[in-house]
Amino acid sequence: MPKATSVIIKSVRDQLAEAGITSYAREAELIFRHFSGYPHQYAAPSQLDDQAVARILAASQKRSDGVPLQAIFGEMYFRYLTLEYKPGVFIVRPETEMLVDLAKQAIHQKLAQGSGPIRVLELCLGSGAITAALASELAAEEPEAKISYVGVEIDSAAYQVAAINLRRFAPSARILKADALQLAGIVAEHSFDLVVCNPPYIPEQRQLPAEVINYDPARALFGGSDDGLKIPQGILASASYALNDRGVLIMEHDDTQGVALVNSAKEQGYQEAQTIRDLNARDRFLVAKI
């Protein structure tokens, strides 16, 4: 028997709120939109058929049990894109969107200075979200610019998902299945203008929410040492190998690592290094120039 749309929406909101999900109203809206086929409840009929109700309530139960929306939907939302998601792949999060803004600023600046073709390298490519966003947005903003993209990813599951996403949003991008910490022989030395990276950086002993630790692969989360700095510091070395003499590294990091990474960058020969704060005034992004 059909059920009233307003009743279903309230039921989902209440269930998510009871499960402790802070953004329960927004997530209830997303679940409704995804499984009802309507953009929002006010575009839907006053009653939903049994199949739509069953899909919505099943999704609501999964979310209440701690399953991330991305795993329920089989897709991720990042900036203006809807990306492929499959189990075993790191779920890209909203805070990484600022890394894209910083990377775009660096590219716009290089283009304004009259730089020739821009070469961008993403290390720890993951799902390809960052490169996909950069390529799709810059194609619209700088249609005459010559910008090429290369991504490096070691994990097979992530590599396959990145290939799907970049085929759609950055079809000319090249993907290399390799270790981002071992670039010699993989890419040409000093050949890139910009390196972007959201590496594994979480300190090893940090306790994480169940929906993170149960769904994100550990190799994409933890930075390889008690302070989480081992892999980010390795990325500094890889980027210095890849960047040309005007090159820039932009890397996301934990909010406890800003000072240490600025110091590490200078120790490794970067001429300039600074930490950029996120919208919550936390140190989250290293910008380092060769």
Distinctive features:
single chain; 290 residues; alpha/beta; seven-stranded mixed beta sheet; 20% strand
Molecular structure report:
- The chain is α/β, with parallel strands linked by helices and 290 residues long.
- Helices cover 40% and strands 20% of the residues.
- The protein is built from ten helices and eleven strands.
- The chain has a seven-stranded mixed beta sheet, with helices on both faces. It has a two-stranded antiparallel ribbon with strand order 1-2. A two-stranded antiparallel ribbon has the order 3-4.
- Strand 3 and strand 4 form a beta hairpin.
- Helix 1 runs parallel beside helix 3 and helix 6 runs parallel beside helix 7.
What's the layout of helices and strands?
Layout (H helix, E strand, L loop, with lengths): L2 E2 H14 L5 H13 L10 E2 L1 H15 L4 H5 L1 E4 L2 E4 L12 H16 L5 E6 L5 H13 L5 E7 L2 H14 L4 E4 L14 E6 L12 H4 L16 H13 E10 L5 H10 L4 E6 L5 E7 L1
Give the structure's gist in a few sentences.
With 290 residues, the chain is α/β, with parallel strands linked by helices. It has helices at residues 5-18, 24-36, 50-64, 69-73, 97-112, 129-141, 156-169, 210-213, 230-242, 258-267; strands at residues 3-4, 47-48, 75-78, 81-84, 118-123, 147-153, 174-177, 192-197, 243-252, 272-277, 283-289.
Radius of gyration: 21 Å
Helix content: 40-55%
- The overall strand count is 11
Structural class: alpha/beta
Shape: globular
- Tell me the strand order in the biggest sheet: 7-6-5-8-9-11-10
Give the helices and strands as they follow along the chain.
EHHEHHEEHEHEHEEHHEHEE
Largest sheet: 7 strands, mixed
Determine the number of helices (DSSP H or I, runs of at least 4 residues): 10
Residue-averaged pLDDT, rounded? 94
Poorly predicted spans:
none
Portion in beta strands: 15-25%
Q: Report how far apart the termini are.
A: 66 Å
